[in-house]
Amino acid sequence: MSYEIAVIEGDGIGHEVVPAAIDVLDALDVAFEFVEAEAGDATKEETGEALPRATYNLAADADATLFGAAGETAADVILPLREAVGSFVNVRPAKAYPGVDAVRPETDVVFLRENTEGVYAGHEDRLSDDLSTLTRVVTSSASRELAEFACEFVEDGRGPTDDAEEGFTVAHKANVMRETDGRFREEMFAVAEERGVDADEELMDAFATKLPLDPTQYGVVVCPNLAGDVLSDLAAGLVGGLGLLPSANIGHDNALFEPVHGTAPDIAGEGVANPTAAILSAAMLVEFLGHVEEGKQVRDAVESVLSDGPRTGDLGGDATTDEVTAAVVDRL
Amino acid sequence: MSYEIAVIEGDGIGHEVVPAAIDVLDALDVAFEFVEAEAGDATKEETGEALPRATYNLAADADATLFGAAGETAADVILPLREAVGSFVNVRPAKAYPGVDAVRPETDVVFLRENTEGVYAGHEDRLSDDLSTLTRVVTSSASRELAEFACEFVEDGRGPTDDAEEGFTVAHKANVMRETDGRFREEMFAVAEERGVDADEELMDAFATKLPLDPTQYGVVVCPNLAGDVLSDLAAGLVGGLGLLPSANIGHDNALFEPVHGTAPDIAGEGVANPTAAILSAAMLVEFLGHVEEGKQVRDAVESVLSDGPRTGDLGGDATTDEVTAAVVDRL
Ligand SMILES: CC(C)[C@H](C(=O)O)[C@@H](O)C(=O)O
Ligand SMILES: CC(C)[C@H](C(=O)O)[C@@H](O)C(=O)O
């Protein structure tokens, strides 16, 4: 049996880091069939659509999707693709690695971001020449689904510390958004209590102050959609930027994996992009398919290369994407 | 002529830092009449209301208001008070001071936060057992009012660098909230262009990554309400916490000034709270009333004390609130 993986390189360095991740997957003892599809700015220019129906369908039908990055059209590509795979949670680990320059080298946090609603539900209206509105949506069902996932995540020891006792932190703004974030918050605590998982909370603004002051206070952080977007990107700044951060958009029987970084137009096409985030995203893909050992193998190889192997320019080295990728494959 | 200042200490260390700020104001060559009023958790316990009508009216009718902090009831107190003074912008400088331990000592940014709408407009509905919504509101009129203020702020050299050429940065999420943040963004750029002020932009998530990586990239940052809340609190974390940060809620002919910190229940009542944020808020009050020289006098005295005067415990010293306040008064 082999897994069908939809491969969407997208724009810019997507064309460099996704092939790097595939080289690593190919070196594992797992059988994959990779099927390429197009999306992004260039696709829009050619076809008029940033995300052709065929690409959407491929992602929906595959066992998993590996995505690179998209430029101006990012929202038109990634939001429907998250929907295509039925993703309800975006898993975003933000971890500083030894030897990598970081504002806060102690950072090791995993964000579990609600992936379907909040302001992303996208109901906007132009009510008059002066007035526009957006309807922010929070349901108990989506909140509970996220909470169940968070509990399992913690119980399975998949947080930064594998200590399930640590539980999770809910970051929200229920002191202002009383009804919507109030519902979110309430469901998080209700499910945590039902399952005997510890939960505490932090207002999202206070979280933004406290994370840079001491990131070790937090482990697994569960957030509504936009809060998860902003707070996980803040953590990215603390670990030294987006170049190392993978992410997983998880659904019930499908998922999409993407580096958190963008298309990096300044270096695109030069073969010097850092493939780490894409390779770590591939590791999350392998784990999602049930091959936990192989996922760990990839992460260990990446960490080993980060500590004393070749480095790309963003990390102060002068290695190419291929050299870093070869080093990772070598150390698997 | 003397200015009528509404004084609302609120809860916790509000009772310590607001009197400290008043001591400093009293030492200036400006005549004030201070009128005290109640609000906050204790007031709610006593009267059933966190913000009695009399307090609201006092703030609405005064020349300006000095507010301390409120506990659990913070949102019930501060949101109506912002409305009472007709505030359309919340000015939040985040500056690291020499000698104060900071994650990013180069930080010197001023946030101009829209203060009336966004998710704070507060229309929420429980549509079913499963579903709640919040209507996020953005108007061109409020956006333009903020933009006009931002242009004047920049033109008057009130940003971190007094160089008007630097313009301002708009932080928003218009790639997702296309209609609402799209409107906000469009009005910011339109007014900037009309007035010949430079404006650039950053997505709010990218801003959260880039600020910790290099805060010197930014000067004056203009944001929708919640973005301004979270991003300015992030900057607070980079300068070493909330203990030093003042803020001003500015309206057309009235305003309210408040330290960004909360009630600090752990140290409340001990006389050891850091009065700096409240004193700097008082400096902003004095400037708002047109006494720019006296405002600068206070800020200079505060900076001088921070660099070699007595310090409270949060800054590694063991001075009391009174000792720090006396030192500031002494150096005016
Ligand atoms: C491109 C954009 C729509 C997207 C988001 O806001 O979710 C991105 O910022 C991300 O975090 O993956
Ligand atoms: C207390 C709360 C309503 C308030 C806000 O969100 O505006 C606070 O966080 C602030 O920033 O002043």
Automatic annotation (TrEMBL), chains A, B:
It comes from the Archaea. Residues 4-328 form the Isopropylmalate dehydrogenase-like domain. Keywords: Oxidoreductase. The keyword Oxidoreductase applies. One of its GO terms (molecular function) is oxidoreductase activity. Pfam families: Iso_dh. Gene3D superfamilies: Isopropylmalate Dehydrogenase (3.40.718.10). InterPro entries: IsoPropMal-DH-like_dom. PANTHER family: DECARBOXYLATING DEHYDROGENASES-ISOCITRATE, ISOPROPYLMALATE, TARTRATE (PTHR11835), ISOCITRATE DEHYDROGENASE [NAD] SUBUNIT ALPHA, MITOCHONDRIAL (PTHR11835:SF34). Belongs to the isocitrate and isopropylmalate dehydrogenases family. This is Isocitrate/isopropylmalate family dehydrogenase.
